[in-house]
Amino acid sequence: MDARGLWALVCVLALVGCLVAFVPSASATSGGVGVVDSGPEQPLLQETANETDQTANETDQLDDADEVHIDVFVHENGAATFVVDYRFENDSDANWNTLRDDVEANPDAYAAEERDDWNAILEDGENETDREMEIRNVSVVTDVSTAPRELGHVEFTFEWTGFAYIELNRIEVGDALSGFTLPKDTTLQVFPPEGYVVDGVEPSPDDPPEGSVFWDGDGTEFTDDQPWIDLMEEGNASGPADESDPGPAMPWLTVAAALALLASVGAAGWWIRHEEILAPNGASSEAEPPAGTAEPATSGGDVTQGEQETNGPPPELLSNEERILQLLDQRGGRIKQQEVVSELDWTEAKTSQVVGGLREDGEIEVFRIGRENVLALPDDRESDD
């Protein structure tokens, strides 16, 4: 090969070497086939994760609130509206401003976090009461106040369905908060619905405002059965629970008059019979029954009239209302509602419904002794019987 051919071969080899070196470099920079360019995606994922962590950290700042005030507005249907107010002193502080801006920028994240916290309490309440419950319509707002001191507020509002237990003319509050603790610097205030008053409270409230129940976490400890609040319709409240309370006062004057009348009738009957026995002209010493009076049944095995009145018709021939009235007759006119549940093997809901109907019709009266409902026949019905 001459010098010219050798030089041409060297040039070709140099050109091929340059092409081999250039192609991988070009592919790496242009995202060519077979090369994964993940550079831009990783920073974006990392940025999203950082934003989530930052929101969680900001949410945790609610735990640093100087005070937490929980207001519970009970409704007649057993639901309750909660207003949870996280309060921060010195609303001009940089930390408060940062928190306020973050809440306003991410209200859904804060609402979801608050819902999760209360759902944990709700689950304990459902297990304790066997009632279906739900926390819904959670919202959050921020605010500031200047009197009596400067405060920043992060305020959550939500509805808790199935919160209270309803029975006739009363609402029992507290069993849904089973296992609830009231930490220091936290208050709980419960407001009854319109037309209801507080009829019993455990434990004793702390300086309760009028028309509500108030506990301060600095000195309140709840036991397993607390908090407990008994709300009654106005006009039906019996005052503070007292196990020795015998219920409504007996009409003693009426009872005394009835006893006196019975004594007079008995004395008159004895005198008439005595006169008949000693009557002259050979009058029989056995008084004849008045005309038209049926002879008492004497045949063996027959049910007497007194026994029939005591036993009454068989239960399957009685309505639900009649069965309760029959129980009241058998118990002397009074019986605890829980005993009706046991005796008739009914659910509490069914018993409350039937009792409520009888009470509305004026067939029975309902009053409280301690924590129990007592059913009673009206005074006029007892005297008629």
Automatic annotation (TrEMBL):
Residues 72-196 form the DUF7345 domain. InterPro entries: DUF7343, DUF7345. Residues 317-378 form the DUF7343 domain. Residues 283-301 have a biased composition (Low complexity). Residues 203-225, 282-319 are annotated as: Disordered. Pfam families: DUF7343, DUF7345. This is IclR helix-turn-helix domain-containing protein. It comes from Natronobacterium texcoconense.
